[in-house]
Write a structure and sequence with these properties.
Protein name: Core domain-containing protein
Largest sheet: 8 strands, mixed
Order of helices and strands: EHEEEEEEE
Number of strands: 8
Number of helices: 1
CATH superfamily: HesB-like domain
Distance between the termini: 30 Å
Strand content: 35-45%
InterPro entries: ATAP_core_dom, HesB-like_dom_sf
Strand order of the largest sheet: 1-6-7-8-3-2-5-4
Shape: globular
Domain Core: 1-101
Organism: Paenibacillus albidus
Amino acid sequence: MNIQVTPLAVRKLSERLGDQLGIFKLFYDTEGCGCDGINVLLIVDQAEHGDTPVETGSVPMVVSRQQEIFYEETMRLDADERMSSFKLDSHSQIYGKNILVRDVRSGSVIPAETAVCSVLN
């Protein structure tokens, strides 16, 4: 899988990583969502068994082998200067215009009752 990440998206994702170690995980979340599911970018400490590296050229990213079926082989990740979310699309579809980043690294403070698809500031 290959995701072309625009320069603006690279900058904004790098800002989200900060000075801590971590990688992004493209995740299709259906847990606790009032819809069929949403795409999110999780920041995780490291890849898990069963994760596949995503070729981005600049941003460390993985996707679960089980979730690869939801995505096309080639996609594009973009950002908007005024928004904190991202847009993921391909030549044939838009996966999301409001994809949020959720930091789930071990050093992050996340309320236990908050679902991944909840909007957080």
